[in-house]
Prior knowledge:
The chain is α/β, with parallel strands linked by helices and 542 residues long. Among the domains are: 369-434, Luciferase, Domain 3 (Luciferase, domain 3, Roll), CATH 2.30.38; 440-534, GMP Synthetase, Chain A, domain 3, CATH 3.30.300. It contains 15 helices and 25 strands. It starts with 18 loop residues before the first helix and ends in an 8-residue tail after the last helix. The structure holds adenosine-5'-diphosphate.
Amino acid sequence: MALSGLMPGLMMDRPLLVIPLMQYAAAYHGDTKVVTQSLEGPIHRTTYAETYRRIGQLAHALVRLGIKPGDRVATLALNSWRHLELYYAVAGIGAICHTVNPRLSPEQICYILNHAEDCALFFDIPFAPVMAKVKSATSSIRHLIAMTDAAHLPGDGDFLAYEDLLAREPHDYDWPTFDENTAGQLCYTSGTTGMPKGVLYSHRALVLHGWGMMAACGLNVADTSLPVVPMFHVNAWGMPYGAPMVGAAQVYAGRAMDGPSLFALMDSEDVTCAQGVPTIWMGLIAEMRAQGRKPKHLERVLIGGAAAPVSMVEAFELEFGVEVNQGWGMTEMTPLGVVNTLKPKHASLSKAEKIALKAKQGRAVFGVELRIVDASGQLLPRDGASAGHLQVRGPWIAKSYYKETTSALTLDGWFDTGDIATLDGDGYLHITDRAKDIIKSGGEWISSVDLENAVLGHPDIAMAAVIGVPHERWQERPLLICVARGAAKPTVGDINTWLGGKVPKWWLPDAVAYIEGLPIGPTGKIQKNRLREQFKDFKLGA
Ligand code: ADP
């Protein structure tokens, strides 16, 4: 409905841009640390004040390389202070920082670089071997810059050294002001189904999302945060924007993401909170068990990207006193959608009830609207039981993909996440499946996520994935694929006895298969499409 007679507000019209975030951090939290386990070897230490000065130098260097507003500048890099500088300097001059996932194959990397028509590529030294392919298979890239100094420069004069570029430049940069809807960051989806698609984040979305993330996870000036989530995928969940906003210190692990390395870094740098996907936390929990303690100052972890198993929440909270908050989101959502915090009324719940609630994904953060609809688009009730297609709406959610002319939204303006979920009366979201992974048995849906979660509580099972296999009578039945923790390999009968009462009886898997390891994709998730391919000829017994 169009209203008439509206009165304009009389507030300043200052755009929401990313550079002011770092200006703020430099001015008010200038001595706060940014620490990296560097790829060259030693621990690297800097501050927000120094980071801002180097961002100015980098901006001059980019302009000298001929980078213009709207140009795409790619990074193929792990988490580090230099990657942080690129985030800000590239977007700050009006260009677009395009983070590319180094875990993709060289062919996929080149496809993405060509699709984005990047004009420069900044890479970390371990990825130098990919540059030969990049040179031969891409056409738009004019500059290849190794993110290191002259002493560690790979190649034979093939690349520029990042530190050499900066050395010649002044610190002060006259940052331009422009429309907050201008693009500042680009990230491609991992393309598990079909070709990867570019999600183009505006400055406005990045700033608002950073605020939303900080409000939701309670990061503050007393925190030292370790985002184990990669800066090469979905902006490390917005931490590089959020932490400077609240003056929290940051620690970057570089390549050292195994349990013992993470534990040591958390211990020595007094990390209070960390963010990552479940596969990362499995390593840390094993190390905490080996040492019989948690890293000294670790208070809380944010787990997202895939469902946090109940056994993982229990391990953190009950064994080690580390608070768990689960989060859910996706590339198209910058990525945050929901975070799991308990309500005051939940204080009276038993430990087990609290853990069960924490294993749900959580409640929407302000700025993200959620709805669940059935196959015909009808709204489903928030009763905690009606499962349907999860759709979202908000100022940091994509409306279309880079270079695609069509809208990515439903006719009434919502984004369909591809997830199947329930919402309960308190607004807790529970992801039961991705639409493509759901198992349809006798006209009912079996939640592969819930079934895996339950199986992971079994002491002999280290990893589990459930896929649907064809069945004459029931259409599909669940096949459980496991990695055993040790020598013991429980039969499907043993597992189902153990699962009794934990899941509905008709969900119990019809068979179990053991393999050495599950295929993990470039963003740390189990690749069920590969399992479906591997087990496509699997026949269930009578
Ligand atoms: P992709 O894996 O397609 O690259 P994202 O990295 O954007 O995409 O992952 C988004 C998807 O990951 C969500 O749609 C959802 O299926 C899954 N996901 C993210 N967080 C959670 C969570 N806490 N619990 C269950 N699933 C999650």
